[in-house]
Every structure is written in C-alpha cells, then in structure tokens.
Amino acid sequence: MKRFSFSGVMLVAGMLFIYLPMLILVIYSFNASRLVTVWGGWSLHWYAGLLDNRQLMSAVGRSLEIACYTAIAATALGTLAAFVLTRIPRFRGRTLFGGMVTAPLVMPEVITGLSLLLLFVAMAQLIGWPAERGLLTIWIAHTTFCTAYVAIVVSARLRELDLSIEEAAMDLGARPWKVFLLITIPMIAPSLAAGAMMSFALSLDDLVLASFVSGPGATTLPMEIFSAVRLGVKPEINAVASLILLVVSLFTFLAWYFTRRAEEHRKRAIIQAMEETVKGS
C-alpha cells in the first residue's frame, strides 16, 4: 500500500485551499436562487443578467482597458530599467536607482496610493494637470507599481544570457539596435511575456491604489465588487468572476501551448544543426 508523504499531503491541502473556493464560486454562479448561500437549482439567469447590468460591465471594461495599457507600459519601462541595472555595472547613483526601482515591491500600497494622490493634487494646483482623476491617473499608478515586478523578472533573465552571442553578432557587422531586436529580445521573450502577464494580473486585481487615485466615473471592477460586497454578495458578481477565471485560464493555456511549441521547434532546430555539422565534418 502506497503511503502518502507529508509533503504530498501538504501540497494537496494547499492546492485545495487555493482552488476549492474558486470551484465553489463557479458552481454558485449557476445558482437559480437570488440568495448566494441558498442553492436553488441550476440556471444561466445571472450570466444573461450581466448584459443588463451596465454598471458592472462598464467596470469590467475599464479594468481590462487599464490592465492592457499597464502591461504594455510596465513591460517597456521595466525592460529598460533591467537593462540599465544589468548592462551598466557602474554609474553615478546606481544604488539609488536600483533602490527606487525595487521600492514599490516592499512599499505598502496604502503609502504608495496616498503619495500618488498628493502628487496628483499638487500637480493639478501647480500646472493644472491632471485636471481630474480618472483612468489616466489609475494607469500611471498601476504602471509605477508593476514596473518593479517586470524589472526584477527581466533582470534575472538578462543575467543568465551569454553575451558572446551578442558580441559575435556585432563582430559580424550587426548594428546594436539590430542585435537588440533580433537576438536579445527573442532570448528574453519568455521573461517579457511573464512580466506582461504579471502586470496585467496585478493591475486587474488592484483595489488600494485605484481607490486613492480614481475619480467619479472611473470605478474599476475590484472597487465595484468591494462596494457591492459590503451590502451582500450578488449573484452577478459570481458570474462575472467565473467569466474572468475562464478567460484567464484559456489565455494561460494558450500561452503555455505556444511556448511549448516554440521550445520544441528550437530544440529540433538545434538537433538538426548539430546533425548537419556532424555530417559536414
């Protein structure tokens, strides 16, 4: 009889602790009863009702829009910061720059949100921008927060790269920008994708920063759910959360599938090149 090890039991318990509430949420999204805690049979009523709930769907659209913009901006800025930290070993203020890049990782979100709120208010008084807080200020706050995560992920990948490949390309006459686009970017593409997906998830999930820097008409999905939960969980919230879980799961599976195919194609290309080299010699 096979015995269960302590580590295996703890792994199963941890997975159940994480994913069992999500499964219960998905099941209760098909509940026909208006009371979330009372099962009234299977129904798609609340999914159809999402089309009529304009306030909730508007919050979903705003959150997705901000998350997409945040992923793009944070990936670009975080990659630049990672290159500065890894490819320029010495420059004046390097320690200060590294500390400022990684500060959002350890800074409480309440402090970051309050600081950004005071900054936007002071800028509005001095230069008249931003005239009002909304999607733009939320995007700036989320980009500031997520850039640190991208910088850490990309920096770890850049430190593992073999610089001889880039040096060989430049010795053969390739311009630095061409080496960056055709050699460096493909080699760090998995870290860029990981940083972008992490930024998207963090932006979509954020409540604290958005609460500080948002304004009228700029309510995100976490803010909408938080305000609704205080009055009781509505069945529509279960339905929209289930749809988000479905979309994220499909996106993660597709990313894994295409990454695996690219890795297998790369391995086959390496094996084929080695076989051709052996035959030529």
TrEMBL record:
GO terms for cellular component: plasma membrane. Residues 60-255 form the ABC transmembrane type-1 domain. It is found in: Cell inner membrane; Cell membrane. Its main location: membrane. It is a multi-pass membrane protein. The chain crosses the membrane at residues 9-30, 66-85, 97-124, 136-158, 179-202, 237-258. PROSITE patterns: ABC_TM1. It comes from the Bacteria. GO terms for biological process: transmembrane transport. It holds the Pfam family BPD_transp_1. Keywords: Cell inner membrane, Cell membrane, Membrane, Transmembrane, Transmembrane helix, Transport. InterPro entries: Bact_Polyamine_Transport (IPR051789), MetI-like (IPR000515), MetI-like_sf (IPR035906). The complex is composed of two ATP-binding proteins (PotG), two transmembrane proteins (PotH and PotI) and a solute-binding protein (PotF). Belongs to the binding-protein-dependent transport system permease family. CysTW subfamily. This is Putrescine transport system permease protein PotI.
